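Continuing the batch. This is chain 6 of the set; chains 1 through 5 are on the previous pages. Same settings as before, nothing changed between runs. Recording input and output for traceability.
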Amino acid sequence: MPHDLPACRCVICHDYGDRDEADHTDLRTIEQVRDHGWSVVMVPADAEGPGFAYTIGLWHTHRVPELAVFGLDIGTMRVLLNTLGRQAAAGTVLEPGREYEEVVEGRPVALRTADLRWYREFFGGAIAFHRRPPFPVLQVVWPDAEGRFLWQVGTAESYGRSQPRLWLRPAEHPEGVWSALVTG
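Output for chain 6:
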């Protein structure tokens, strides 16, 4: 583990007297992180927007960024995050700006660093587990049918409504379902 990383302040590493306040979901997450190294939180699509999923525990267990993906089928997102989690646990370096081939369904994905200002809206479970940022989150971005990533298409593309651009500050994000969640 590199020495320049901040110390882990998660609920497993430190008991500040708040473990007794953990609910069933929190206890299940702690158990999954202890048993498997991480947990995947899945948020289904609803009237507010597309579904998304993210990891909790990769930072604690392996000192690699947590991962988040948006806009795909819940099952596909779980498989994608677990595949990348297993690769990271086996030593694959997950780097922002890099593409990873054939992670799920034979398609590439790319990783981008999520801006801290999005965390409260999307990663509440991870904040509760880690107690507070900083813990890094990488957004897993999938390409459209033509193989283009979000930064290669215009803002009006329907594909861009399926996944946010978390590497942008919320104020820089194109208007739509994602920016409305943070500013609304």
